[in-house]
Amino acid sequence: MTPEQVRREEELSATVLASFEATPDVRLRTVLTSLTEHLHAFVREVRLSEDEWQAAIDFLTATGHITDERRQEFILLSDVLGISMQTVTVNNAAHGEATESTVVGPFFAAQSPRIENGDDLAAGAPGEPCWVEGTVTDTSGRPVSAARLDVWEADDEGRYDVQYSDGRTTARAHLFTDRSGAYRFWALTPTPYPIPDDGPVGALLKATNRSPMRVPHLHFKASADGLRTLVTHAFVRGAELAGDSVFGVRESLVRDFQRLPPDAPTPDGRVIESDSWTRARFDIVLAPLPG
Ligand code: BEZ
Ligand code: FE
User: Fold this and answer.
1) Measuring CA to CA, which residue among 98, 133, 91 is closest to residue 227?
2) What residues have CB less than 8 Å from 126, skipping those under 6 apart?
3) Which whole number is the average pLDDT over 19-34?
4) Which one of 22, 120, 188, 194 has the fewest beta carbons within 10 angstroms of its own beta carbon?
5) How far apart are CA 254 and CA 237, in angstroms?
6) Per-residue pLDDT tens for 51-75?
7) Taking CB atoms and a 6 Å cutoff, what residues make up the pocket around ligand 1?
8) Strands 258-260, 193-194: parallel, antiparallel or unpaired by DSSP?
9) CA-to-CA distance for 195 and 272, rounded, in angstroms?
10) What does the pLDDT look like over 171-198, one tens digit per residue?
11) What is the Cα–Cα distance from 195 to 214, expressed in whole angstroms?
């Protein structure tokens, strides 16, 4: 590149950066300045062609067109680029033994049935029964009683209840830890499922030889007075090696889901009608509130 070409490119970036200097909101100015610096550096580094620029505009336009109140393709794009997980990581700083956070995903619902400890949250969704138990403690090891746990998962066909057409609520519930900080419930053994891949994000995954599959997981949101709310998953050991399309796996969140025959005694005497069942332990440690 000639010195004159470099001068023109640098001058343009500097002019755009200067245009944000009078932004009254300091945080907005910081974010827009940094974004401009990175985007200009990107365009110059890859020598973005005008056809590539148009392809990017077309991709984002298609992402907007497929998005509605049930389908959020922009979040999916953020997920497969690892931006969602990086934002989670930045905002949930490591703190002692506190359980690591991961992505919330699009299938959380603020309203869910309340169950008692020992109940089955599957509510008729198809899948292998899975007994899940654990404790909630703070980082000093003190049990947290009355912590609220929201739990949600896909059925064994990889579908969440919100994806059913009949509006029924299954495989999601909330419950509270008992006086010793313990909890227990029946659920379904998590199975692998693809993120929605029939839109532009699916095309991106295809063009880059990437799988849409998520590692089998059970979603948890744990909240308690005076402690940092945790959004996380329990992942099934073994399956995590296949890789996760949204980069949500943390080694510390991988658990053994022990598979047992139907005649193995269940913790609460439940009679198992399927060929097998599993059990897993997921102890949760909540960090203090930041600040
Ligand atoms: C989920 O785990 O439910 C999920 C997360 C990110 C994208 C799609 C689904
Ligand atoms: Fe999920």
Assistant:
1) 98
2) 155, 156, 157, 188
3) 98
4) 22
5) 5
6) 999 999 999 999 999 999 888 999 9
7) 76, 79, 103, 105-107, 195, 214, 246
8) unpaired
9) 31
10) 999 999 999 999 999 999 999 999 999 9
11) 7
Complete DSSP assignment for 79-92: HHTTHHHHHHHHHS
Atom 2 of ligand 1: nearest residue by CA position = 105
Contacts of 131 (CB under 8 A, 6+ apart): 184, 185, 186, 266, 267, 277, 278, 279, 280
- Written as six digits, the tokens of 124 are 């008729």
Amino acid of residue 153:
E
Separation CA 177–CA 175 (nearest Å): 7
What is the whole-number distance in angstroms between the Cα of residue 107 and the centre of ligand 2? 7
As separate numbers, helices (DSSP H) first and strands (DSSP E) second, the chain gives 6, 12
The pair of three-digit structure tokens given for residue 157, joined into one six-digit string: 């066909």
Nearest of 288, 278, 284, 163 to residue 234 by alpha carbon:
284
How far, in Å, are 8, 149, 256, 288 from residue 235 at the CA level?
A: 51, 17, 8, 24
Strand partners, 223: 148
Q: Is the dihedral of CA 191, 236, 201, 220 positive or negative?
A: positive
**If we measure between CA atoms, which residue out of 158, 154, 195 comes closest to residue 171?**
154
291 pLDDT exceeds 80? no
Our measurement of the distance from residue 165's CA atom to the centroid of its chain's CA atoms, rounded to an integer in Å, reads: 23
CA–CA gap between residue 44 and residue 267 (Å, rounded): 62
Q: Report which of 283, 288, 140, 177 is spatially closest to residue 227, judged by C-alpha positions.
A: 288
The amino acid that residue 273 corresponds to is: E
Task: Determine the distance separating the centroid of ligand 1 and the alpha carbon of 106, expressed in angstroms.
Answer: 6
- Closest ligand 1 atom to Cα of 107: 3
